[in-house]
Amino acid sequence: MRQIVVGREPRALQAARRRSRDGSQTKRSLLWLALCCASLAAVGGCAPPRRDLHVPPFARVPYEPFSREAAVAIALREWRSFGALVNDEPPDPQRSIPADAKPERAPGLWQRVGEYWWLGQDADRTESAWTGKHDAAGNVFPAERDGQYAWSAAFISYVMRTAGAGEAFPYSPAHSTYVNAARTGSPELRIRAERPEAYAPRAGDLICMGRASSKNVRYDDLPTEFEGHCDLVVDVAPEMLTVIGGNVDDAVTAKHVPITEDSTLAMPDGRVLDARYPWFVVIRVLYDPSR
What we know:
By secondary structure, the chain is an alpha+beta fold. Helices cover about 30% and strands about 15% of the residues. Mean pLDDT is about 85; it is low at about 1-25 and about 25-45. It is globular.
């Protein structure tokens, strides 16, 4: 029979107590480190977590210069992935796409929209977890509520970030964020707002309009909060732009936009040639000078 020494804990219990004691010390050390880091952050000695750690190195570094060619190629690639759709018809408020026909909710494409949200937004934003049909908790939202998850600005942000814009673009779920930033001319950003009658858009630039209650917003109103939409210019031809935008007909869609002989969206008096859409500002993107 094995002899048990009274008054001495079994070795297994002693080891468990040591592990518990060591664990408590580790927790206290981690808490102390967290408090120190918080204190240092308050005086600028500890940098906050990066908001772009989710971005692949080729875009974060970036591996190649931020270029018009890259932005246009990325937009065209996404357009082809949605079936190379073109819609030159005037907008029809009464037109409705059945839920089972919405491209953004189709297998393979709702995930693609999720990538626009994931990469086009900073890592600390709730919207970065959305998809073409899921909220941040992974719940499928009703198709009739997709306006609350509009992803056109996420698409533009995705193109800019993937092309290598880095910290030079204000990624946002709202077009007004970067339009207003471009109008105020923040020196750290590589975007500038231009009047539609004064600047001829180039491939890689953005053209923007007001919509819904903001359809009458004008360049001189900026900066202001507004509902809007922006498309990326992918081609400039005599008297016509080809542009691509996200969340157009619940897809990535192209359209053609008439321009003047001087390649501007509007005449010198400010009259926009395109009778379908109230374009009111061009966002000139300052790509790498060598590009």
